[in-house]
Amino acid sequence: MSTQPFIGAQEYFPGIGAIPYEGTGSDNPLAFKVYDAQKRVGGRTMREHLRFAVCYWHTFCNAGHDPFGPGTRRFPWEKGEPMATAEARVDAAFEFFTKLGVPYYCFHDIDLAPDADDVGQYEKNLRHMAAMAGERQRATGMKLLWGTANLFSHPRYMNGAATNPDFAVVSRAAVQVKAALEATVELGGEHYVFWGGREGYACLHNTDMKRELEHFARFLAAARDYGRSIGFEGKFFIEPKPMEPMKHQYDFDSATVAGFLHAHGLQDDFMLNIEANHATLSGHTFEHDLQVASDHGLLGSIDANRGNAQNGWDTDQFPTELYDTVGAMLVVLRQGGLVGGLNFDAKPRRESTDMEDLFIAHIGGMDAFARGLEVAHALLTASPWEQWRRDRYASFDTGDGKAFAEGRLGLADLAALATKNGEPAQASGKQERYENLLNQYLLR
Ligand code: XUL
Ligand code: CO
Predict the structure, then answer these.
(1) Ligand 1 midpoint to CA 275 (Å)
(2) Would residue 357 show up in a list of annotated catalytic residues for this protein?
(3) What residues bind Mg(2+) 2, as annotated (predicted)?
(4) What's the rounded mean pLDDT across residues 399-411?
(5) Does the residue 7 lie in any domain?
(6) Quick check: 3 pLDDT over 60?
């Protein structure tokens, strides 16, 4: 590994070194207060539990544009010409990853390499940039958590990609998925993501939803088969989102995607990548959608961000709410960890224009999840929380309750038991007791 603080000819984040752990007594904005990579929580280090990833698209490509105006951040790797920018950007990215001290990153094909309508040119661009990223991975020890293809920005995908009513567009989408899978394999990527950006509809009058969903399943199976044929051994993740950009998206939430995967026999190769802000857009909490995925054995990875309580859209803010991170880590720890990781699919606000803000935002997210990990671990292993939950269901552990749970009592048997036993005694749900315990452990 190189000891030089930057990779290429230029340092893009001068004045910022490796981010240290300084603890909660420090007021240094460029230091971790909780995330201490080698600190052990239970049997694993924080680094091993949390498996943080930086996303390429927001952090290095998104200068903060919104529907009312262009970007505000002046990225020093913008060179005015797409390929020169892509080459400078990869150096900036690996400098950032190394200084922040995360093990993983994630990308879309056209974050990494310039897009092109000409298929040959597109493939050439991606191969060139993947080779550069590979060199930098070997120099720094960085790893790719997952790759994906952007099948939603180009105007050709306005009516969807794999679910497009026009076969020509469906097959054009395969160019990108094939190339992105090849790049993921070349870079040792652990997994591959499908976020159904425009897989959905704007108007049901012109849409044959059943047919589009059948095409979607065929496309995913074809991608799976191609991935396996070129040596991809990881999981394919579907990332649910209910709306935006489409009025209705097919991968609405965890429950919808779990049903879809089972209906089409895809559940052995595919899992879910749950994004916090997507869960809240679907009317659930982050923790709810994680739990649904986990209960199906399908929780693979997380896009770690948050929405805004007053806005009904995908604000992709950095996760700083400790209640959310504790809730998420309770689900993750109970299932024994993630095969994927925690990818910061999040962007600093448009008004946050200093390059150091990119670091500060990630530090906040990493600290919030590290604290969530500590508190969730303590609640699960050193508090009465799990026992309380188990006690609530104790009537199913023995006797008639157990017989029912094991399928040995019919409806008439149940009714006869109730007739014999009389009105059930009241059993408090005791929500406030759990809420107070969580706060008590957060304050410790
Ligand atoms: C969009 C979103 C995507 C996916 C990858 O809302 O979350 O960035 O994570 O395509
Ligand atoms: Co995402």
Answers:
(1) 8
(2) no
(3) 275, 278, 314, 316
(4) 98
(5) no
(6) no
